[in-house]
């Protein structure tokens, strides 16, 4: 398997000094972070952040173009819908990219309603595109016979927290309200996501659950059956320095300059509380998680990822009393964060297709449960 960390297809060079040269966290670093200022310090210029983000977005485009060349080629969206945001205070639009399974074109004749997997791409809430996870989409279409909806949520620094999460909840709400027109069964929904998108796959269900309590008009009956989350960030109250030092291969983690960009872009303004449950789901109460998280949780973490420990801890918590969700957790050995987005044009990342297939087997079972 690839031993070079990637960020959605961008190769990140290994630390030339080896793991022993990774700076150790100070006592100050070990203290729980309370606000964005604790994580970021003095906030950088938002203009500088936009320039830096655009540079990384261009690199990501090159890396993902190489990623898509490997056979079998991933599918392309069949159509898109651009919808207005209704939940966020930052008004604007988001676009949903629909990948459709075999038989969807005949839907009007059969009146069949398909399950749907709503996906959120990675990239630190700052880079990335809705097509990034198309290799996973292929397995959803073929194995689950489900519509795959990839959400083009709005990115930071232009749209910092909580816009991405609120866009995720808006995407779910749109499919619930328009399932009939889209031939999607709102009783058979699931979320999925990778890295930052793995966070949204979790937090969007919490955000939607809380938002529905405020609505006066009824919403059609629906059931989000499952979450499939891949190497998500779950706890912003713990410093990156602590996470990096605790990793079994700190030399394989994402470099500080990149994680600093992601955090400065997304965690804004300075007084933002890092314990918000739709930012750090680890900090949500048991009652909130039990109420808002679907019954099936499919959780993948990577052994060489600085996010491995917090992901594993949340997976264990969701599976035990009093939350008691049906949790399938796998730690993938010997791989860094986002290993499955390898920019190798000759073949898919080693082991990625096997794990995608396993995940879709779990999703299919969740859709079939009565």
Automatic annotation (TrEMBL):
List the keywords (alphabetical).
Hydrolase
Which region ranges are annotated with the description Disordered? 1-43
Q: Enumerate composition-biased segments (Basic and acidic residues).
A: 27-37
Q: One Pfam family of this protein, by short name?
A: Abhydrolase_3
Q: Name one GO molecular function term.
A: hydrolase activity
Recorded coiled-coil stretches? none
Question: Which N-terminal stretch is annotated as signal sequence?
Answer: none
The chain positions of domain Alpha/beta hydrolase fold-3 read 117-339
Among Gene3D superfamilies, the record links this protein to: alpha/beta hydrolase
What is the name listed in the Swiss-Prot or TrEMBL entry for this protein? Alpha/Beta hydrolase protein
Which organism is this entry from? Answer: Apiosordaria backusii
């Amino acid at each position: 398997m690839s031993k070079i960390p990637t960020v959605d297809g961008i190769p990140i060079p290994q630390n030339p000094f080896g793991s022993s040269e990774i700076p150790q966290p100070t006592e100050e670093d070990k203290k729980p972070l309370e606000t964005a200022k604790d994580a970021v310090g003095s906030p950088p210029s938002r203009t500088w952040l936009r320039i830096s983000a655009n540079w990384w977005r261009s690199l990501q485009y090159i890396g993902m173009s190489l990623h898509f060349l490997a056979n079998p080629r991933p599918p392309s969206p069949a159509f898109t819908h651009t919808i207005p945001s209704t939940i966020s205070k930052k008004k604007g639009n988001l676009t949903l990219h629909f990948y459709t399974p075999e038989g969807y074109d005949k839907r009007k004749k059969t009146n069949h309603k398909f399950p749907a997997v709503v996906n959120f791409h990675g990239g630190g809430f700052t880079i990335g595109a809705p097509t990034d996870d198309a290799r996973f989409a292929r397995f959803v279409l073929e194995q689950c016979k489900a519509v795959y909806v990839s959400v083009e949520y709005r990115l930071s620094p232009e749209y910092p927290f909580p816009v991405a999460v609120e866009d995720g909840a808006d995407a779910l709400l749109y499919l619930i309200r328009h399932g009939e027109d889209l031939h999607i069964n709102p009783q058979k929904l699931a979320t999925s996501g990778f890295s930052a998108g793995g966070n949204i796959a979790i937090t969007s269900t919490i955000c939607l659950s809380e938002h529905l309590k405020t609505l006066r008009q009824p919403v059609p009956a629906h059931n989000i059956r499952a979450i499939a989350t891949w190497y998500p960030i779950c706890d912003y109250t713990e410093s990156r320095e602590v996470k990096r030092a605790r990793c079994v291969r700190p030399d394989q983690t994402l470099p500080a300059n990149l994680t600093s960009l992601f955090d400065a872009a997304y965690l804004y303004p300075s007084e933002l509380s890092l314990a918000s449950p739709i930012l750090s789901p680890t900090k949500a109460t048991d009652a909130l998680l039990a109420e808002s998280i679907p019954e099936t949780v499919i959780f993948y973490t990577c052994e060489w990822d600085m996010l491995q420990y917090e992901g594993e801890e949340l997976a264990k918590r969701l599976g035990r009393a009093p939350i008691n969700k049906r949790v399938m957790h796998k730690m993938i050995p010997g791989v860094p964060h986002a290993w499955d987005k390898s920019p190798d044009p000759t073949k898919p990342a080693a082991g990625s297709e096997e794990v995608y297939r396993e995940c879709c087997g779990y999703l299919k079972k969740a859709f079939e449960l009565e």
